[in-house]
Amino acid sequence: MGSDEAYNFVFKVVLIGESGVGKSNLLSRFTKNEFNHDSRTTIGVEFSTRTIQLKSLIIKAQIWDTAGLERYRAITSAYYRGAVGALLVYDITKHLTYESVERWLKELYDHADPHIVVMLVGNKTDLGSERSVPTEDAKDFAEKNGLLFLETSALESTNVETAFQNVLGEIHRKVSSKEVTRGSISAVSLSSPVPRAAGDPEEKKPCCRNL
Ligand SMILES: Nc1nc2c(ncn2[C@@H]2O[C@H](COP(=O)(O)OP(=O)(O)OP(=O)(O)O)[C@@H](O)[C@H]2O)c(=O)[nH]1
Ligand SMILES: [Mg+2]
Fold it and tell me: Which InterPro entries does the record associate with it (predicted)?
């Protein structure tokens, strides 16, 4: 436990998308630099954290992961509550996982804060010869829907860092530009707008009250 850890913001980010697209491996690559070749389907909810520096600020990312499969999913509203960012993942070699992106977006907007920062993520670029979703298609879709977009490989560690960093950076930009004045984005992060001194344990849980 990092009880001496200090940070300025905690941002909750959720992973969504069909089963098998690589959500859990993107998470383990980002938080532990690990990849699991035969990972099992996620059951229930798991989360991991990683603290990153963004300019002069320390941001703690709390990343939630659940199953793409309906029967293993946790209660949806609890999963999305307080989330300020989302990675909507599909597999570039499985067109069906891309076709379901709209359904995931709908679920997300039905349950999450309307200002949530969303990135569409095409994972498994290491399997380029099996690609069935053209980059341009996904890019156009993302642009039309106001989503960030990147292609990644959790296996080769391509763009994983960049994907999370961009989402966290965009959340921070929204929060600090006061573009968002209501809803959970402001509730989560603006409860402690003043950077704290290192090791101040009293003030280190600005977000967790509403989780
Ligand atoms: N080639 C390749 N395989 C990957 C990549 N990311 C994940 N995988 C593999 O894809 C399979 C599913 O990965 P998971 O991370 O468990 O997928 P998930 O989205 O968490 O699946 P659910 O928990 O069932 O929703 C595993 O066999 C992984 O090893 C990648 O970037 N490249
Ligand atoms: Mg999983």
Answer: P-loop_NTPase (IPR027417), Rab_GTPases_membrane_traffic (IPR050209), Small_GTP-bd (IPR005225), Small_GTPase (IPR001806)
